[in-house]
Amino acid sequence: MLRFVQRCVTLGPRFSKGCDLDSAQGAVPRATDELNQLKTRLLAMGGEAEEQVRAAVRALVDGDLGLAERVLCGDEPIDRLHMEIDKRCYDLLVEHHPSATDVRVVVSGVKINSDLERIGDVAVNIAEATFSYLQHPPVKPLIDIPRMAEHAQGMLRDALNAYVRHATDMAYDVLDRDDTLDGLKDQVFRELLRYMVQNPATTEPALDLILISRHLERIGDHATNIAEEVIFMVSGRDVRHHAQEGRDPTEH
Known about the structure:
Blueprint: H1 2-11, H2 21-62, H3 65-72, H4 76-96, H5 100-133, H6 144-165, H7 168-198, H8 203-235
Helix pairs in contact: 2-3, 2-4, 2-5, 2-6, 3-5, 4-5, 5-8, 6-7, 6-8, 7-8
């Protein structure tokens, strides 16, 4: 606000119309309200994306082709939110001239929005592989893939909660959990490889399950991206290629 007043004084009467102090004072709560709405819409989009993933995995576990088909056709709400949130972010930057801290919130929102849209796409990919898998007899009882799905969805929920709460500790915890998901993916691959070697007839459905495990691992990667954005948003620290260095002890 002080900089705004100084600008009005410096520019003088010629620009007084553009320096409406009442408007400037009103811009702060409006910007705050827009930022809160941005967080709300991102949470809504995260909920949609998580539900799509949950439904795709449930279709696999239950052998429900109808549910898999609904997931294949169900990403339109996520696409609409993707476009809406992008517009909100750009409008915030153009119309409200946010502070440096709020700029990080908005820019992080743009990137998180992109990750959530991609998670929606991954859910569709899981449904496609599920549809293919269900054309064959089951290869094995499904144990690790549902565990992977639960783990990935938990990472996504916590990453979004970290965004809303500005909680870097929660974000670092999401980063730490990514290795567990990678380990489960490797375990699924090794086990299914044995099935394919022992019985070549299982090759095609086993490859579908391997593909699904890789899609779930990608969801964990997107959750990790969101967590990294939270850390940058709150602290200004870019950990995208340095997560292994650990957290800054001054962060909370």
